[in-house]
Amino acid sequence: MGLCTTNRLEGGTFTLYFQGTLTTCFEDTFLLPLFTWILILVLLALFAFARQKAFRISPDSYNSFDSPLGTPAHRKLGGGGTGRIKLANLGLAENGEVIPTSTKIKAKLGLGGTRMGGGKKKLSTTGPVKRRRIALGCMLFFLFVNIAVQTLIIARLSVSGRGVGLLPFLYIPLLLSGLSLFLRPHSYPITIISCVYFIVLAIVTGVKTRSLSVFQHAGFNLTVDQLKSYASYGYSDEILDNGVMAGIYGILMVLEIGLAFLDRRTK
Fold first, then answer.
1. DSSP bridge partners of 22
2. How far apart are CA 149 and CA 143, in angstroms?
């Protein structure tokens, strides 16, 4: 079995248009997977850029006067010049007390009720954290639903003998999106890329849904094999499945934006 079979009424693998409308085979084999490959290339380029930027950091910076890691113990605090050492970097409060490491980490993350340098600072992050957990749960739920519906479409196309194109590649960005949710802090470049990808997939899936609607009323003369194929998985069912997919992609985009906003609130 090829990418698409002649059981598709509008044409098989090498058919691009039918009556002025893109064929579902072209959409399943080229259009939908195209943006997945573009997403993978963009993420690889972003990863390579991040690694290159990290390697540009000179090892000499760890021995500089401004760096607390390279500061000898005999240098005096507040010794003047451009290399003034911050008390917080040395784990000292303004009154000379030693700040525990756990307290410093909590202060930098905005957690707990203490503040470096003495004093109390009441921070209420319960609301944003709780809302983020709800949004994260919704995101994971809709990703799971998306994968389930995509699996249903692939299975029904395969059983009907019409071919699945390159639809299995659509699992890759969904799995990457699920993994990115557990990065902390949230990466804004990945958020932007994910939002663009989800909205593009929503549009393309909407275009495919329209094509299916056009072909549903085209009045084809069906062969016996085509009749069996569309009896098991008709145009109406395929329109419903792809319409659900388009809506889920839109919801995922909104949730990505919401998570980015809540991540900023909980820093």
1. 17
2. 10
For the chain, the domains span 17-43+125-265, 86-123
- Helices in 58-187 by DSSP H: which ranges? 101-109, 126-159, 171-180
Q: State the chain's maximal CA–CA distance in angstroms.
A: 91
pLDDT digits (tens, 9 = 90+) for 132-187: 788 889 999 999 999 999 999 999 999 988 889 899 999 998 888 888 777 655 56
Q: 141 has which bridge partners?
A: none
Is the whole model's pTM more than 0.90, yes or no? no
d(C-alpha 157, C-alpha 70), whole Å: 63
Select, from the ranges 57-66, 91-100, 158-167, 187-196, the one with the highest average predicted confidence (pLDDT).
158-167
Q: How far apart are CA 233 and CA 30, in angstroms?
A: 22
Residue 202, number of CB atoms within 10 A of its CB? 19
The two three-digit tokens of residue 219, written as one number:
């009045």
CA distance 209 to 235: 10
Taking the CB of residue 66, how many other CB atoms lie within 10 A of it?
13
Report the 10 Å Cβ neighbour count for 27.
22
How distant, in Å, are the alpha carbons of 110, 127, 148, 184 from that of 103?
10, 22, 44, 19
CB atoms within 10 A of CB 163: 22
Of the candidates 171, 188, 170, 196, the one whose C-alpha atom is nearest the C-alpha of residue 250 is 196
Which of these, 106, 69, 108, lies nearest to 85 by C-alpha position? 69
Residue in the structure block whose two tokens are 């050492």: 85
| Token pair in block for residue 236 | 């109406």
